[in-house]
Amino acid sequence: GAVVSQHPSWVICKSGTSVKIECRSLDFQATTMFWYRQFPKQSLMLMATSNEGSKATYEQGVEKDKFLINHASLTLSTLTVTSAHPEDSSFYICSARVARQGASQAEQYFGPGTRLTVT
Amino acid sequence: SQQGEEDPQALSIQEGENATMNCSYKTSINNLQWYRQNSGRGLVHLILIRSNEREKHSGRLRVTLDTSKKSSSLLITASRAADTASYFCATGMNSGYSTLTFGKGTMLLVSP
Predict the structure, then answer these.
(1) Shortest Cα distance from A82 to chain B (angstroms)?
(2) B63 and chain A in contact, CB less than 8 A
(3) DSSP 3-state assignment of A88?
(4) Distance of alpha carbon A15 from alpha carbon A101, whole angstroms
(5) DSSP character at residue A2
(6) Do A91 and B48 touch (CB under 8 A)?
(7) C-alpha span between A98 and A2 (Å, rounded)
(8) Nearest-CA residue of chain B relative to A42?
């Protein structure tokens, strides 16, 4: 099956610093990647949709200047949490959609997640 | 919002028993999907059911969809300890490249 990786798996950083999280589709091309955040024992909340070669589309309430998304290639999207604060501590999960004409919505594969802790 | 709502929030059963989780949503959908998440890990897609389908099977999984009641159920038969995880339903508005809206999830604990 298609594999999506995230790096790092977990990161602890100090308040005010920026953290970059990578999401890679390892064996397929993905024109679209999604970024979610998940607080403990809660559901996934979509933050933004990342399209290769264009600007990301952010969900309402998500600050685009704080959560910078870059989708520079068909296999890589990055999420940078700028000037992180303790309230940004969360589990960040990406997913990638297969870039194939007629691909169903089911062909969306999730990464293992990145746990961010801001102290 | 058409966020799905799962119930129960948590479920504890013994190995070999069946586990049933329910999901309700608010608006019309094109499809509904069930995902599994092990603690602190990413999501694994389990099954997709389209709005014109009423039931679908995959191994020990059985999913039903009742669009008149805007609800779906996931049945895991003959549960195993390895089935311990959180289960989420997610709804899709159309068959194209729309986003998924996730419910709050059901935590399932299967004891040996």
Answers:
(1) 23
(2) no
(3) helix
(4) 43
(5) -
(6) no
(7) 9
(8) B104
Residue B107: which pLDDT band, with cuts at 50, 70 and 90? very high
Residue B78 in contact with partner chain A when CB distance is under 8 A: no
- Under a CB-based contact definition with an 8 Å cutoff, are residues B4 and B65 in contact? no
pLDDT tens-place string over residues B9-45:
899 999 999 999 999 999 888 889 999 999 888 899 8
| CA distance linking residue A67 with residue A63, whole number of Å | 6
| Span A14-50, pLDDT tens digits | 999 999 999 999 988 888 899 999 988 888 999 999 9
Cα–Cα distance for residue pair B42/B44, rounded to 1 Å: 7
Token representation of residue B60: 């020990």
Grouping H, G, I as helix, E, B as strand and the rest as coil, residue B82 is helix
Structure tokens belonging to residue B28 = 């019309």
Residue type, A32: T
Q: Give the DSSP per-residue string, A12-63.
A: EE-TT--EEEEEEESSS--SEEEEEEE-TTS-EEEEEEEETTS--EEPTT--
Residue B2 DSSP SS3:
coil
Q: How far apart are CA B17 and CA B9, in angstroms?
A: 18
A5's tokens: 């990786």
Which one is predicted more confidently, A108 or B107? B107
Q: Is the pLDDT of residue A105 over 60?
A: no
Q: Are A88 and A68 in contact (CB under 8 A)?
A: no
